[in-house]
Automatic annotation (TrEMBL):
The keyword Ribonucleoprotein does not apply. It comes from Salinicola corii. This is Helix-turn-helix transcriptional regulator. Residues 187-285 form the HTH araC/xylS-type domain. SUPFAM superfamilies: Homeodomain-like (SSF46689). Pfam families: HTH_18 (PF12833). The keyword Ribonucleoprotein does not apply.
């Protein structure tokens, strides 16, 4: 039997963090049974993202032994400071470790960042479709290297933290957020976006422009504009890109930078996803209509 320190064949791990939520997606082939022990100062959620598990035996703290092969979407919630140990064997499995940093809930709870955060309730082998969906979307964003994916990731991370506080906190006494930002605050953010569209934009920067908490910003955009801040920023970037492509001879790379996108390839990928056309095809089509 291997120990966790010995090599596991075919390992691949990617880690990325948004708004105090650290996600590590691992793809592993574990030929022989592996013993592991995990104990973190942070709350941890382990999510099965697919694969074939032949053996799993796990124990959380002093609880009863959990056995069986986890299915797609099945997850375990490990409270901060709890010992999680067991034996694992899989032909090929993909899973995510989601760590919630201490102080990472300060905005959602209205607490100072150094205040104690109540641990999550321990759960093994449960299903939470919303949590699973958030982790899947974050996993898709992990290898993207641009400001827009950071903004979407930050939005998902905040939604995930609120969900965990409401459904998985040990005391489940966290109140719902207050009313979101109003029309005046949303208008301030809209002006800020227009003035800084060529820069990286985060939820923290946008909320700071209106002097409101991040979760109020998200709620306010939903109430006033019917969309999320991240989606609004993307739409404004694409709006500027369409105008520049139609009314200037600016090189595509410069169009990308003017819209706050990291590269010409990022512009091409995003523009095609949003419009169904590449930037070059859109420019040619627009000029053809004006001929």
């Amino acid at each position: 039997m291997q120990t966790a320190e010995q090599p596991i064949l075919g390992n691949r791990k990617i880690t990325r963090e948004w708004a105090g939520v650290s996600v590590t997606v691992s793809s592993e082939r574990i030929v022989d049974p592996v013993e592991w022990v995990s104990e973190h100062a942070e709350n941890l959620v382990i999510v099965n993202l697919g694969g074939v598990t032949s053996r799993m035996e796990a124990r959380l703290g002093r609880g009863s032994l959990y056995t069986g092969a986890p299915t797609l979407g099945e997850l375990s919630v490990v409270p901060a400071g709890e010992r999680f140990a067991g034996v694992y064997q899989a032909n090929r499995v993909r899973f995510a470790d989601v760590l919630f940093r201490p102080g990472g809930f300060s905005d959602e709870q209205g607490l100072a960042s150094n205040q104690h955060i109540t641990p999550f309730r321990a759960s093994l082998g449960v299903v939470d479709p919303f949590l699973f969906g958030c982790v899947v979307e974050l996993a898709k964003l992990m290898e993207a290297d641009d400001g827009q994916s950071d903004l979407f990731g930050e939005s998902i991370a905040h939604a995930l933290k609120l969900h965990m506080l409401r459904l998985h906190a040990a005391n489940r006494q966290v109140s719902r957020p207050e009313n979101g930002a109003g029309k005046v605050e949303v208008a301030k953010v809209q002006r800020f976006v227009e003035e800084h569209l060529d820069e990286p934009l985060t939820l923290t920067r946008l909320a700071g422009a209106a002097d409101v908490p991040v979760h109020h910003l998200i709620a306010g955009f939903r109430q006033v504009l019917g969309t999320s801040p991240a989606r609004y920023v993307l739409c404004q970037r694409m709006r500027r890109a369409r105008w520049l492509l139609a009314h200037s001879a600016m090189a595509l790379a410069d169009v990308a930078y003017s819209c706050g996108l990291s590269s010409q390839s990022h512009l091409t990928t995003t523009f095609r996803k949003e419009t169904g056309l590449t930037p070059a095809a859109f420019r040619a089509q627009f000029r053809g209509l004006g001929a």
